[in-house]
């Protein structure tokens, strides 16, 4: 039986489906997926369905195309913030697509399995656009209901960080990461990992000039009056030596906490942190050491 594919309906319905599934995947993965990025990902997802109109491809090539298109959709919607966030968001998007396919099959069982076409590992189902859009909305609303009942993925504690660097005050959002163990190897000073792109607009010009030169592969001198510490850091993308600058004072304000810490090294990275939602990271030892200091002072 010949199946007629209406190109406009194919693109529009897959665009709508991609948008809502990407927004739902972002909520489940705890990843940032703003509306504009979701629209971009939905556009890539809709365009990828045009493989239905291409000549038949060998199975290995078709499989590679599906992997590549899925990666492009995830990248367009969520950006690149390391392999684990990327794979987590992509896995949720894939799982929600399977859920949508299950709903579509339920709809087909009532009206018969006619109008199904499989070509280049892509399935075309002759469902009405209204039925398909309602199925997508059902998946999205089911995700919202689950999050409403059980709560969203483990959230990040909101901390406000304020520090004095080279005579300037810099304010940013910080994230308490229990797996953060970055330390200054020379003086053993407390460290904060700060995303340079996230605070660049607040830093004095001489600090930005130094960081720009350092991350460009040059060997610039640190700003006058600021001591430089080279701090090795191991992360998901490998090992790097990051520049650390002495901070006069750092103040952390969070849930039922207000801490003031001296002798801190601000370690800068050229990468965004936590999908760009935070500009700084600190660890458990940071709070533990401060608590011990305050306890010893009281006694």
From TrEMBL:
A GO MF label: aspartic-type endopeptidase activity
Source taxon at top rank: Bacteria
Pfam families reported for this sequence: Peptidase_U4
This protein's record includes keyword Membrane: yes
The UniProt record lists the keyword Zinc: no
InterPro entries recorded: SpoIIGA
GO BP, sorted A to Z: asexual sporulation; proteolysis
Keywords per UniProt: Membrane, Transmembrane, Transmembrane helix
Transmembrane segments: 6-26, 38-57, 89-108, 128-150
Protein's name in the database: Sigma-E processing peptidase SpoIIGA
